[in-house]
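Objective 1b: paired records.
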Amino acid sequence: MRTPSSLAFRLIAAAALVSLAGIVAGGLLLSNVFRASVERQLDDRLVADMENLIAAAEPAPNGALMMMNTIADQRYDTAFSGWYWQVTPEGEGGDGGGRLTSRSLWDKSLTAPGDATGGALARGYAKGPENQELRYVVRRISFPDMAALANGSENAPPKTYLFAVAADRAKGEAEAANFDATLLWSLGAMGLFLTLATLLQVRVGLRPLTVVRERLQAIRTGKAQRLEGSYPAEIAPLADEVNQLLTHNAEVVQRARTHVGNLAHGLKTPLSVLTNEASLVKGPLSDTVLKQAAVMRRQVDHYLARARAAASAEVIGVRTEAGPVIADLARTMEKIYGRKGVEYEAEIPMSLAFRGERQDFEEVVGNLMDNAGKWAATLVRVSAEGSAGRLVVTIEDDGPGLTDEEQVRVLEKRERLDEKVPGSGLGLGIVRDIADLYGGRLDLGRSELGGLKAALTLPLA
């Protein structure tokens, strides 16, 4: 979840973006709906007051217009209260005569809009007294000219008046602002809740993937052989494919081991026959055959061991306990070299394990312990430690040891330094090759006991 490439990050980011877009769009929509509702309520009130104002208007005998009653709202009588009405004869403006106004206008007047046609109602915004932002409604109403009728002018045109009612928008704007503030924190809380819900959903939804990772890690470290357990329908096919892959991998490795064993048997038997036949005949030819057969046997042993290790080095889920293997090897070596007074001392924590095949571990550690027993005077010490995913097995002896030049010769050039000591002379080379196949290494140095110190680094399970 920490990187943009993670599945959890993508799910949470996508959900957050969609939620944010929905919350913003919903907030704007609700805010606009509320503002429109506030304005509609104000318009309804202004229209109702205008109808009352029109109903109270009566034409006077002198041709003017008089108000029989005023709007029964104290705000129209309070100076600059924000609620105003005005009746203006058509064509008159400024301080022209005949205009009727509410007491709240005091000595001011409203700018009569000119967009009211016929009896239609017009709405709009305007500046009022005290620089107030006003919402107004206007209607043009015609009344008979009573003065002209009294003088006998029956065809006299009616007089037209503009009835205007206005109110300050400040209160409505304040209500809308309060609503926006409430909407903001409530939608913010909802967004936080949705984020937490998404986090929980992603955590719960992706938990099976975490379980798969943990069980794959157990397979890789040798604690399990297969992906066991039940999984959701979307992950179950993946688990089945992994198990089939593990089975196929094990079958391939087994076939490779079988072929290697068959090859070893097929090569060693003819070599043994050649060696036996050549040993029965004395002469230069038999000596050459024996010498070359020995070389061939060493090469076969070396490359067969390397091929077998290569086939098993990448096997998943293999684990070998280091303590029991080294203890068994120490007992075996003591039986072989105990006759010359060599003692094996092994101190291996039981919690350490090699991530690989048991026979490969026996091959590399056994070669080193065997080599130490050949050259030791009285003691071979074997120890092991694990850290940072690496298992380090150290074999030391109190023999003569090797110089730096000799270490290079036995490791790099694979030379035998003493033909009198039994063996093929390829033990250290085989150890190094197998260690390389497992991503490890072999280091030689000087032991505190006075002899050779071999430090073998392998993957830790």
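Objective 1b, second protein:
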Amino acid sequence: MAALSVNTNYGAMVALQQLNSTNMALSETQSRVNTGLKVASAKDNGAIYAIAQGMRADVKGYGVVLESLNRANSTVDVAIAAGGAISDLLIDMKEKALGASDESLTATQRSAFNEDFKALRDQIATIVSNAEFNGVNLINGSTAEITAFANADGSSVMTVQDENLSLSGSIITLSSTASMSTASVASGYVSTIEASLNNLNQALARLGTASKALTIHENFVTKLRDSLEAGIGNLVDADMARESAKLQALQTKQQLGVQALSIANQAPQIINSLFQ
């Protein structure tokens, strides 16, 4: 047992040390409860914090990748929708051309077919010129290709080639000034339109394949980002149930520490009774 002294109160020093230790643990637990994080800064755990920050950077990067993929996919979807509409117009134009190739028609009747034919032709040009998303048109020959980020640091990209569906082009070979003045000319357009339809179907197949690839990668990146976020949570998130229980225990311990310090501080008063 320590000797009674007016200069040194060993019991009070021990009680104060324990109380300070409890207060530090309580402050740490309260911080975890307030932030929901067991590693909120580098001073909590430098190594884990560095790993988590690197993973957070990847998560942000994959967010940009998803935005890039979404834009590219939307651009391709617009092109596919426009291609489908052009395909329907070509089918109608084939019908008009076949009808106008009938030798028994009068000039007036063939002219009526021709007017419909030219209106459909012009509609194709209108669709091609307006099929754009976010300022990018993938079917009018103005854009050679579009790219989308494939990874978080931008070092890898996915590329979609353009498909020029303009009239008088390599896919739709029908002239932009096509007109059916005679039955023989109309008959020639039937085979031209059939060839254009075959070319268009192949172009749409390529665009569809590109769209599917973008969608598959978009789903993969979404799952990868979710996995990274879960990994960050495993590293830095606090177990709130455990922290709640710990908080209550430390609060009780703090109260007891204050009482112990109070008792220890009363010990030197015993000396007064020795000299009465």
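The domain at 46-235 is CATH 1.20.1330.10 (f41 fragment of flagellin, N-terminal domain). The two ends are 23 Å apart (CA to CA).
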